[in-house]
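Today's session is about reading a structure prediction critically. Students often jump straight to the picture, but the first step is always the sequence itself: look for stretches that repeat, for charged clusters, for runs of hydrophobic residues. Only then move on to the predicted structure, which in these notes is written as discrete structure tokens rather than atom positions. Here is the chain we will use throughout the hour.
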Amino acid sequence: MVNVQQWLNQNYPDKNKTTKIKFSHIKTAIKNFNKKFSKELNLEDELVIDNFPNLQKIKLIFAASHRGLITKLTVNNCPCLTEINCPWNRIKEVKITNCPQISKLNFLSNYINVFSFNSLNPERLTMLNLQSNNFASQSLSFLINFAKLEELYIGNNETSIIEDTYNRFHGSLEPLKGMNNLRILNISNTNINDGVECLPEAIEEFRCYQFSEIYQTEVKKIFEQLRPFAIKPYDGKYDWDSYRSVRSANEIIEASAIQQAEQAALVELPQKKNNDIFGKIFNRKKKQPSANNDVKEVPENQNAQVEVISTGNN
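Below is the predicted structure for this chain, in token form.
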């Protein structure tokens, strides 16, 4: 039996000459899958691709009906590598080191829950597809440094939610506010529920729908917020100019209301101060003795003297 690593070594023995590692399992290849590959390759295995000095692209492409065989992918020391394309595998863990030129990563529909994003070069990465994986509940803060992204897919499809292997991202879109070149964003079927105002003007396609009422997700709040501006919402198309105009008008109204409230507070402050002073004077006068003389309580001691308090002139 030939496992995934042996397959790589047999098909790409000369690392210096290899510029592309490719395994395509789509269309006609699917018909031969059971006859050929299921017998030759282990169903679960780790693939290590390292020390390919001229490697530029890795394409291990499978299909939804026949998932790939890789469960862990390690890519190390490939200085010219720009693209990794591994959709529809069984990958749970990804480790990438010393690959500073990577600009595109496609891990659509895997089972990833371990991925070290710190090893990626944020100045190079322009496309990241993590849709329908298995990331634990977390905010989008791990993406804050990737300001060059143009395409970002972090949502879920129906199948992944039914299988209970889906991305559990939540919170706000605010960590994306520095991505001025972001054109395409997919957060469908997640619990991201806020921060539409943080999206850049470059946005062209924004998918934020919930596919079923049976599986409730908080992204529905964003979908409803954008409903008045929808053109083709399930294709991610919205009238962003109208949205921004309405938002700007609302911001002006809010700012005006805040300013009026602040001005009213400034007017009320001196009046409140005067009222406090008047109250203190009034209370002080109430506590003063009445006219003429007031006699303090006489002690029970017979020899006690009566103290007279004079309020007038003798």
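Discussion point for the tutorial: The first strand starts at residue 20 and ends at 24.
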